[in-house]
Amino acid sequence: MSYDLLIVGSGPGGYVAAIRAAQLGFKVGLIEQYPVPGGTCLNVGCIPSKALLESSGAYESAAKAGSMGVLVEGLQADWPAMVARKDQVVAQNHKGLAYLFKKNQIDWIQGKAKLLGPGQLEVSGQGILAAKHLLLATGSKPASLPFAPPDGQNILTSTEALSLAELPKSLLVIGGGVIGLELGQVFHRLGTEVTVIELTDGLLPEMDRELGKELLRCLKKQKLGFKLGHRLEALKLQAGGVVAQGQDPKGNPFELSAEKALVAVGRKPYTSGLGLEEAGVLLDQRGFIQVDPQFQTNLPGVYAFGDVIGGAMLAHKASEEGVWLVEQLANQTPHRSTIPAVVYSHPEVAAVGLSEEQLKAQGIAYSVGKFNFRALGRAMAAGAADGFAKLLTDEASGKLLGIHLIGERVTDLIATAALALDQGLKAEELGRLCYAHPSFSEALKEAALDAWNHQSIHQ
After folding, report:
1. Residue range 305-317, pLDDT digits in tens
2. In terms of Cα–Cα distance, which of 92, 108, 2, 113 is closest to 47?
3. What is the pTM assigned to this prediction?
4. Is 437 annotated as catalytic?
5. pLDDT score of 2
């Protein structure tokens, strides 16, 4: 059978692109090597980790409920039940995707794909399939350390950590990035002693540095352990667990032991076994597929997007790139908006646009507006006073350049921030909008007013 589009990979990039393409009238085949759709995000990433974050967060909230006048007796954390609920959430999403594929007349094709050249794929169990356009959205997989290959039992990737049979008494998290912090917080909430080992001197180095500093302060207050500026040189199995060895910031040796270790040192593109190099597709030195601004590879009619082309490895980035690409193929003009970044820690972190560090590096004169959550009525009522909203504006025009948030529910508030940035609003225009009171969104208003000649009302 011949298709208009064949998409390899059914993660949030591939399946969203497939649905949008079908809406635009394309005959679409969606190829997935695993028996279920959704890719890393649905099966071993975004969705299951958020399910566990919600469950562990509910337990933590109940444990602290006494300060709000709610007495809870006999509180227990049932880890197997949390894992079972996580699996149920994933299964529900599988059913939802199956419905969407049927609704949009998308052919779900299960098998391992190999690129033969422009317009042709070989799929295990299916033979050779042809299409006018081939879209590669195979995503990424956890990166590992050469001296510490995961064994799935004691040295874990995020995949194994999501389905442990029992809670470990202690856990070393290797890497202070998004994945390590989110999963580290899940286990810490449930009683595991967690220590994060990070090579750099701070958290979230790709985001505005103030966000990382505030998150570190908050997590230390929650009693998570941190070893910043520590270079890991060995991770060995020992009786009862693992031992990490390396150098501290002063070059002195350090050694830490724990029951298990979670290696969360980033992700790498999933390109192995796809026949890319044999077909002549250009990859960069790190294995990412090289594309032009229209997501075209060096082969005609072969495109790639999402994690497999590099950049920010975000599910929503992959989804938007897939939409942009298929709209372009349908001779439409895609609206390429700025992509926000989020961290589902507690407190949450979210950002869109340029950071202070980027503005300084580019020599752009800017102004800062800021508002602390501790001065926010809703935050005080909710017992969630940590965090702030920070706005960066062009010094001359007042136009928004970057919005950086840390605090309760900021992963939702960032949508308003992204819209304001996308529409080219000035701080004055964002600050003059009416916001519901009391709400967490008022932090945006106050920070915008502060950026507009320091006219914040409540500070």
Report:
1. 999 999 999 999 9
2. 92
3. 0.95
4. yes
5. 85
